[in-house]
Amino acid sequence: MFLVTGANGDLGRRIIRRLRDQEMPVRAFSRLTSRYSELENRGAEVFIGDLKIDKDIHKACQGIEYIISAHRGPSDVQAVDYRANIELIDCALKLGVKHFVFISVLGVERGYEDSPTFKAKREVEKYLKASGLNYTILQPSGFASNLLPLAERFRDTGVYLLIGDSQNRTSIVSTDDLAKIAVDSVRVKAACNQTFPVGGPEIISRGEIAQIFSRIFNREPIVINPPLFVFDGLRNTLGLFNSELQKSLGTLRVLLANEFFCTAEEIESLETIFEMNMESLESFIRRKMGVARINN
User: Fold this and answer.
1) Which range marks the domain in which residue 13 is found?
2) Which end of the chain has fewer surrounding CB within 10 Å, N or C?
3) How far apart are CA 43 and CA 39, in angstroms?
4) Is residue 80 part of a domain?
C-alpha cells in the first residue's frame, strides 16, 4: 500500500488518481477540513489526520510499503515541510517501508537563506539520503497547474501580471508528468537512490508565458510588469505589522528573483529513465482549459 501526503493538493490528487487507475491500494493523508470525497470515490483509503501530530503520522504509516511525500506547508514550514517529513522518514525506517519518494524543489542546494521552504527541503533531502531508506528525490522547477488560475484570468481579461525580470528562465513541468514520475519511481530501478531535477521539455522566459497564453486564447496580452523592488517595498511594509508574514513571503521573493530550469540533458535523461515524453506548458494549458490547437 502507498501512503500519499498532501493528498488534497494539485500534485497529491494526481498521484492518487494514477495509483487508483493502476488499481494500487493507497492511503490518502488528509485534513478533516479538506474536500476528500473525490479521493474516496476513486477507492482511496482516506486517513484523517494532522501532519503536526506525531501520533497521526505513526498511525498513517501502519501497513505501508511506499511513501510519497507531496505535502507543502507555507504557513508553518518548520512543522510541516521539515519536522513532519523527518518523522515520516523515521517511521518508514522503523516499519520497513520499501521506498520513499520526496517531492523537493529545484534549487535547494543554492542556499537561499531568505526562503524557509528551500531550507527545509534541503535539510530533509540530506536526512533522507543518510537514512538508509531506498529513496527518490524529485526537484520540480514549478507546477504547470499553478498557472491555471492565471490562464483563466488571461482568457477573461487579457491581463498577465509579471513581477520582476521578464527574461528570467524557467522550465515548468506538467503536474501530470510529475505525478507519473513520482508513482513510477518506486518500480524503476534506475530511480532508486537518485535525485532528479524535473522540468518541462522547453526552457522559456517568464515573459514568454504571456505569449503562450496569447496563442492559446487568441488575444493580445496586457502585461503588467512591476519591478521586483515594488514587491520588496510591499513586503517590508507588511513586516512592520506582521514579521511572520514578511518571513513567509521570502520563498515567493526567491522564486520571483531567480531562474529555475532544467537542462536539455536532464530532461532527456528523465524521458529515457521513465520512458515518457514530457509535456510542454502550452500543451498542458490547452488540455486543461479545453482549447484545441487550430492548424492554419
Assistant:
1) 2-141+174-198+263-278
2) C
3) 7
4) yes
| Residue range 69-78, pLDDT digits in tens | 999 876 789 9
- Listed residue (186, 171, 132) closest to 1, CA to CA: 186
pTM surpassing 0.90?
yes
pLDDT digits (tens, 9 = 90+) for 190-224: 999 999 999 999 999 999 999 999 999 999 999 99
Cell of 259: 531562474
Q: Which residues, other chains included, contact 167 with Cβ-Cβ below 8 Å and sequence gap of 6+? A: 205, 206, 207
Give the DSSP letter of residue 201: S
Q: What angle do CA 107, 14, 191 make, to 5 degrees?
A: 50
E-only strand ranges, 171-209: 194-198, 204-205
Q: Cα separation of 19 and 183, whole Å? A: 7
Q: What CATH number corresponds to the domain at position 34?
A: 3.40.50.720
